[in-house]
Amino acid sequence: MFKAIFGFLPFVFCAGAVFAFVRPARMGVRAQAVWTMLLAACAAKFVCFEAFGGDAFAPELPEAVIWAWGWAYSGMCILFAVSAAWQILRFATRGLVPQGRGPLWLAGVPAFAWALAAIGVWNGIKAPAVKEIELPFDGLPAALDGYRILQISDLHVSAAATRRRTLAVVAAANAAEADLVCLTGDYVDGMASEQGRNLEPLKDLKAKDGVFAVTGNHEYYFDYPGWTALYHRWGIRFLANECVFPRPGLAVGGVDDIVCGRLGIQPPDPAAAFAAATNGEFRVFLQHRPWADYRLYTGRDDTTPRDLQLSGHTHGGIAPVLSSLIGRFNRGLVRGLYSTGQAKALYVSPGAGQWAGFPVRFFNDPEITVFTLRRR
Question: Which of 34, 112, 361, 367 is buried most, with the most CB atoms less than 10 Å from its CB?
Fold first, then answer.
């Protein structure tokens, strides 16, 4: 169903671009046909990925082909948005705004759309920077003052984000010399047999107190058993309704993403994750989504207290217009630092990578985040 929607929706945008951009220009029939075919080719991205790459969302195609088609598709979407906004403005002003036609319309608007798409795609595929954040807490144990926690989320390694990029992420993370590394889901898109080599550098992540991870929703879309076996072989410890104590006074707990229930896996339960933390430890909670409706699984709301929650999933909202829509599905938790009823501090990472399905980012750079804990 999800793939069917994504396969159909681009053709809606394509039709919108034809009616909002091509038709108002009053170009000749041949020119209209050429533009329509070009826009249809852009819209066919997911259909062709499924047909020729084996999967609409994780095609096994050359990296350049995936990003080029992603750029073409994104430009078409922007062209539709700009042209539709112009037509709405004409309607709202009762025709005072001139009709779109002529060389400026035919050349300028597409040039703007695909140039903006190129910027967005570059922001999506460039290597993430390391962002340092100091977090003060009341009652932080003295031994944890200055403790450094590094978070990596939403890598989305695939045929479009290969081993070279993963090596750069791992090198940057290790250079930060954190005490603890936390991975918060959506590491890869594709099968373990095909993408294992591209994700393999993740096993070289190093921290004084270890590397701990939780699953994201994409972990359950592609070869969950195959990836589980690889993670175990690489020594990456996943936390599922459990916590660990990397050093005295610190408890790190985590849960699987809520879609794990589709595979019959034990449902996530934050209360169970910290059941062993009974001595007033500083609690760091790893959960892929910034908010999840646990009533579907536990029959009760999540009221488990934690000091610091690390999440991802939202990709920072992707772009300013889309961020408000994404926020509606995540209780307004889109990017950055928040305080909630359960968490004194909740950080939503914009992610270190970008899903190739919609490969753009605007005003929203990828990042690796390092938190330094401080006694207030």
Answer: 361
